[in-house]
TrEMBL record:
Residues 2-238 form the ABC transporter domain. It comes from Polaribacter haliotis. Keywords: ATP-binding, Nucleotide-binding, Transport. This is ATP-binding cassette domain-containing protein. Pfam families: ABC_tran. GO terms for molecular function: ATP binding; ATP hydrolysis activity. It comes from the Bacteria.
């Protein structure tokens, strides 16, 4: 569980995050949405410790990250998995080496043990038999699977994803979203995803936090988002005609 309390972060005179309070539970896909510039990236970077809060706290299962000793910080880093926009794989390394990287970096396992673990996670993302391929030989969707395998190879408690399905066609994007949701549930990971993708909101939004100008404007589930009267949420989420129609149909059905 990640508890964010009254989080403030700014740069110079510009206040970006203005007192965000929310809780993310294990086993749930938590989505951060909001207009460009609303503070989603600064929020995610604060969660992974790249920004230090000016005020407020972020605690990981009761442990406040700004209070960590160097040793605790090292331990906590190993509890975190990350999936970046564009997959961020090492182009000159094979799939196997990409996925093995965190194990080599953080553990003293033997090569055999590492390989065993790599094969488990590659199987989980349905990429068995791709060990020797280079990223360039894979489709965008397969590259994302490698990135997910690498993110979970250390068996993380927390998973952070920045636009995990950017650049994918809608069908592949949903497959990747569902994979993240299944893994989150299976391993009871606390997963936080930054997204622009309204399909993701509808498909895997178990908890959605809507940021507006650095404040938490609204939070709820993908079901709640159909029913909300919050004007800022409605105008953002239902800005396309397609989603407007989906919402109208849903509301008519439940009347
Ligand atoms: N390191 C920084 N220094 C100064 N200002 C910053 C820094 N990082 C972000 N900002 C500012 O914070 C605001 C929020 O940026 P952020 O990148 O978090 O938005 P976002 O919601 O992720 O946008 P997008 O959807 O376009 O990625 C912007 O006005 C940005 O210019």
């Amino acid at each position: 569980m990640i508890e964010v309390k009254n989080l403030h972060k700014g740069f110079g005179d510009v206040q970006v995050l203005k007192g965000i309070t929310t809780t993310f539970y294990p086993g749930k896909t938590n989505l951060i949405i909001g207009q460009s510039g609303s503070g989603k990236t600064v929020f995610l970077k604060s969660l992974i410790g790249l920004h230090t809060p000016e005020k407020g706290t972020i605690s990981f299962d009761g442990r406040i990250n700004t209070n960590f000793t160097e040793e605790e910080k090292q331990e906590w880093r190993q509890e975190i998995g990350m999936v970046f926009q564009g997959s961020a794989l090492f182009d000159s390394q094979t799939v196997e080496d990409n996925v093995m990287f965190p194990l080599k970096m953080f553990t003293k396992k033997s090569h055999g043990e590492m390989l065993e673990r790599v094969n488990v996670v590659l199987k989980r993302v349905k990429l068995e038999n791709s060990n020797d391929k280079l990223p360039a030989e894979l489709s965008g969707g397969m590259q994302k699977r490698v990135a997910i395998a690498r993110a979970i190879v250390m068996n993380p408690k927390y998973l952070f994803c920045d636009e995990p399905n950017s650049g994918l066609d809608p069908r592949t994007a949903i497959v990747i979203d569902k994979l993240i949701q299944e893994i989150t549930d299976e391993y009871q990971i606390t997963t936080v995803i930054n997204t622009h993708d309204m399909n993701s909101v509808m498909e895997i939004g178990e908890k959605i936090v809507f940021l507006n100008k650095g404040k938490k404007e609204w939070e709820g589930t993908s079901e709640d988002i159909f029913e909300t009267e919050n004007e800022a949420v409605v105008s953002f989420v239902y800005s396309s005609n397609l989603f407007k129609k989906v919402r109208e149909a849903h509301l008519n059905k439940t009347k």
